[in-house]
Design goal:
12 helices, 430 residues, 27% strand, binds shikimate-3-phosphate, alpha/beta, single chain, UDP-n-acetylglucosamine1-carboxyvinyl-transferase, Chain, four-stranded mixed sheet
Length: 430
């Protein structure tokens, strides 16, 4: 995909459903009793992988034009899949489904693409094994393919070294099948969609946290039954982030982004933009299905550098590539720290962001847990090596709109993972 320099992005757009919440709606729907009716589901490749996995375990899932119907079979209604479960590129599918599979009476195997099969799985294997699960790495390298067989699950109190919603959710989901209460403490609060949705489905789940604290604990009781729900999924703030950034850094722009999920465990980008001097207004703030939602009005702003680190990092971890692009065009220095988790995403995002921004003329240095960006240089077009990472493709599209010459996003089709209509949405703003 070739991107040229542009000014004046104007219009009103709606963002596809939240990826994290979409995954969870299928998973909880599948193990609940009755039908779960999901509106505004994200039909990106990752969430479709989750649908395929549950279909392979005997769950009927109807994909209609306006909704998805998941005909749940209860906590013990899944059946043994005939084949390896294909999780594609999706870390969320892999880690969350492992928690569910650990509680089943059948054995299963799951595997994904090259990127997925090189991501760390020790972080879920260790706590699940402590609970009594039989989960192992087939190649003994602590990565997928994973093999999971029947085990007796016990409740544990687990302290996680990383603030990861995928780790937390895997343990919570296994905890539904355990013989006693399970709790997870993490070093900062990660996204809490599993907790909010499980509560709606009838689970006994409780959280203790302060948003900016270095300790957050969630506890779940063993569960007898979950109950299917009606879910309306808000727009994904991680997808909205590209248009927030585009509106702020592209001259003469004004964009209204409707129906965006602004759960505080996800909305760190809004705080960072405010700290950078952004002109952003939240309109029509409301709650939908237990999740806070708002429309976001963004106008071109003169941004300045900031330091980003500490407990805010988990609330904006997927937005760091596009935040780095904004920082490259802001005045002064931006320091991103405490973000070593970037190294184990779909790509090593410290490397992919730094290498590509450097190629565009940015003064940027990689650090072990983030990067330092000395903003204000003009960017020039370059070949962007996405390494098939959807967030790199989208973040550098925004960079390309504000760079001299042509920016060529290689393998731009990888946006399908989380935002198949990304380039179509852009057309609406031209
Ligand atoms: C996700 C959690 C985050 C995030 C990922 C989606 C989720 O990962 O980066 O894109 O849906 O739980 P970690 O939990 O590994 O930080």
């Amino acid at each position: 995909m070739e991107i040229g320099k542009i000014t004046g992005l104007k219009g009103t757009i709606t963002i596809p459903g939240d990826k994290s919440i979409s995954h969870r709606s299928i998973m909880l729907g599948a193990i609940a009793k009755g039908t779960t009716n999901v509106h505004h589901f994200l039909t990106g490749a990752d969430c479709l992988a989750t649908i395929q996995c549950f279909r392979a375990m005997g769950i009927e899932i109807e994909e209609n034009k306006d909704n998805i119907l998941v005909h749940g079979k209860g906590l013990h209604g899944l059946r043994k899949p005939n084949d390896v479960l294909n999780v594609g590129n999706s870390g969320t599918t892999t880690r969350l489904i492992s928690g569910i599979l650990a509680g089943q009476n059948f054995d299963s195997k799951l595997s994904g693409d090259n990127s997925l099969n090189s991501r760390p799985m020790r972080r879920i294997m260790e706590p699940l094994q402590m609970m009594g699960a039989n989960i192992s790495s087939v190649l003994r390298n602590d990565c997928a393919p994973l093999y999971i067989s029947k085990g007796e699950l016990h409740g544990i109190s687990y302290t996680s070294k990383v603030a990861s919603a995928q780790v937390k959710s895997a343990i919570i989901l296994a905890g539904l099948y355990a013989d006693g209460p399970t709790s997870v403490t993490e070093p900062a609060l990660s996204r809490n969609h599993t907790e909010l949705m499980l509560w709606e489905f009838g689970a006994d789940i409780r959280s203790k946290f302060k948003l900016d604290s270095t300790r957050a604990t969630v506890s779940v009781a063993p569960c007898k039954e979950l109950f299917g729900q009606d879910i309306t999924i808000p727009g994904d703030i991680s997808s909205a982030a590209y248009f927030i950034a585009a509106g702020l850094i592209t001259p003469d722009s004004e964009i209204l982004i409707q129906n965006v999920g602004v759960n505080p465990t996800r909305a760190g980008i809004l705080q960072v933009c405010a700290d950078m001097g952004a002109d952003i207004t939240l309109l029509n703030e409301r709650t939908s299905g237990g999740e806070p939602v708002a429309d976001i009005l963004v106008r071109t702003s003169q941004l300045h550098g900031v330091t980003i680190g500490g407990p805010i990092i988990p609330t904006l971890i997927d937005e760091i590539p596009v935040i780095a692009v904004m920082a490259a065009l802001a005045e002064g220095e931006t320091i991103i720290q405490d973000a070593a988790e970037l190294k184990v995403k779909e790509t090593n995002r410290i490397e992919t962001v730094v290498d590509n921004l450097k190629n565009m003329g940015c003064d940027i240095t990689a650090a072990d847990d983030g990067m330092i960006i000395r903003g204000g240089n003009r960017l020039h077009g370059a070949n962007i090596h996405t390494l098939l990472d959807h967030r790199i493709a989208m973040a550098f599209t925004i960079a390309g709109l504000n760079a001299d010459g042509i920016t060529n996003i290689l393998d731009s089709k990888c946006v399908d993972v989380s935002y198949p209509a990304f380039y179509d949405t852009f057309e609406l703003l031209l």
